[in-house]
Amino acid sequence: MPRQRGRQIDDNVSVVVRHTVVQLLTPDDKRGRVSAVNSLFIGTSNELGGFESGSVANWFGPVCSVVSGGVGTILVVIAVALIWPEIRKYGRLDSA
């Protein structure tokens, strides 16, 4: 149970950081719409991620689920960095 609580806390911190970034980097006239879409994605991504991880663990085992999730995350980060190089130039939040 303490491990689960720790993951929930980590996830909440991640949500707050992402929401803060959205608030800081979105133009004032679009902030409400962008925040709404961001909230929708945050709300559904956890459910879809849990379903995907559980399905892979059920079909191929928990180790494969964890390893494939890590590899997938790394591939997504590399793809985003290559497709949108301006994201790498954002820098630190305190300089925004």
Describe the structure.
The protein is mainly α and 96 residues long. It has helices at 2-25, 31-60, 62-83. Helix 2 runs antiparallel to helix 3. The protein is globular, with a radius of gyration of 16 Å.
Summarize the structure.
The protein is built from three helices and no strands.
Give the SSE map.
Layout (H helix, E strand, L loop, with lengths): L1 H24 L5 H30 L1 H22 L13
Helix pairs in contact: 1-2, 2-3
How many individual helices? 3
Oligomer: single chain
Mean pLDDT: 84
- Runs in which pLDDT lies below 50 for 5 or more consecutive residues are none
Number of strands: 0
Distance between the termini: 38 Å
Summary tags:
96 residues, mainly alpha, single chain, 0% strand, 3 helices, globular
